[in-house]
Amino acid sequence: MALSPRSRRAPSCRVGTLRHKPRMDTGGEREQPLPYRCWLASSRIAVAPIKMSNEPLRQDVDFDRDFWRAYARRDLQEAFRALEDGHIAFGSWERLYLSAAIDHFRYRNFKLAATSAQRIFSERRRQPFAGRFTQEKDLADLRAEYEGLTRREQ
Questions:
Q1: Rounded Cα distance, 83 and 120, in Å
Q2: pTM of the model
Q3: Which of 68, 100, 117, 129 could anchor a disulfide with 111, C-beta 3.0 to 4.6 Å?
Q4: Bridge partner list, 44
């Protein structure tokens, strides 16, 4: 079985080629056609080149700790506000998460403190709380403990 002359021909130039070949200039501005018609711009838009900064990287080693401390403070304040205003009932799970957040804050694990404080707001189908607390603490006691930690930290 012989191949037809048509199948032995070189592939067409159109097959596999892109209709739009973007220009990649290293300096100045480059223009790229828009794939749609925009009423704010014409059919072409200028794109500024990417420039690298000569500034050294930030050498602040405490940046992560300060970032997560601020998040933990904010999340704990929101949790206390929601519990005190009555938007969320202060039950066993909320007490557990709030105690965990305060303990993480005390031991300077601010990322886990923020996570534990946020769990107070998640009311996904929780199992009934089967545990028991050894000390009975109410919301005011937990608030006073948190306020003492923040005063000591400043």
A1: 9
A2: 0.58
A3: 68
A4: 33
